[in-house]
Design goal:
By secondary structure, the chain is an alpha+beta fold. The chain folds into 2 domains: 2-62; 73-174, 2-Layer Sandwich (Alpha-Beta Plaits). The protein has helices at residues 2-35, 58-62, 73-85, 114-128, 143-148, 158-174; strands at 90-97, 101-108, 134-138. A 3-stranded mixed β-sheet has the order 1-2-3, with helices on both faces. It is elongated. The N and C termini lie far apart (95 Å). This is Lipoprotein YutC. InterPro entries: Spore_lipoprot_YhcN/YlaJ-like (IPR019076).
Length: 175
């Protein structure tokens, strides 16, 4: 009887002891996963309300491959366009973001002043984009189709770059 009680006691001790260690390890892994930029995160309903935070030590990133810093051009173009369309002065907006340029063409509500809408569009793009981007704005609605023609363009393709330069020239000439 004594042996059976001892075996039950040892088994319970091991099970409950391991459970606590697993729980602590699980909590630690959860925190590490939250801070790991490579982990796949589930969508948090408060995502847009949270601050952005990372903290690394040099040793944590020293042996990683050199990371290339990238931006999501589509997300930036989408953000600029949606912000502009919240203003009643804009009826339709097309935005293209390249490596160095932001191109915005729009159709405005006739009740609004041309200079004010151009200024508003430029300032909106400036508030979203890094400072080194050149911002080109035109209220010529015919350029919307030209910008749309760039939707599958690559920033590394010379032909696409030439088309962008032609559109920029037309925007600067007309707008």
């Amino acid at each position: 009887m004594r042996k059976i009680m001892m075996i039950i006691f040892i088994t319970c001790f091991i099970l409950f002891g391991c459970h606590n260690d697993n729980q602590r390890l699980s909590e630690r892994e959860h925190i590490n996963n939250q801070l790991d930029p490579n982990s796949k995160q589930t969508v948090d309903p408060d995502f847009d309300k949270r601050v952005g935070f990372v903290n690394y030590k040099r040793d944590q990133v020293k042996h990683e491959e050199q990371r290339q810093i990238t931006i999501d051009r589509f997300a930036l173009a989408d953000m600029i366009t949606r912000i502009l369309l919240q203003n009643e002065a804009f009826e339709e907006v097309a935005t293209v973001v390249t490596n160095n340029d932001v191109l915005i063409a729009y159709e405005k509500n006739e009740e609004y002043d041309e200079k004010e809408t151009i200024n508003y569009a430029r300032k909106t793009a400036m508030s979203v984009m890094p400072r080194f981007f050149d911002i080109h704005v035109s209220d010529n609605p015919n350029l919307i189709d030209d910008l749309q023609s760039l939707h599958n363009s690559l920033t590394t393709d010379k032909n696409d770059q030439n088309v962008v330069e032609q559109i920029i020239h037309e925007m600067n000439h007309n707008g």
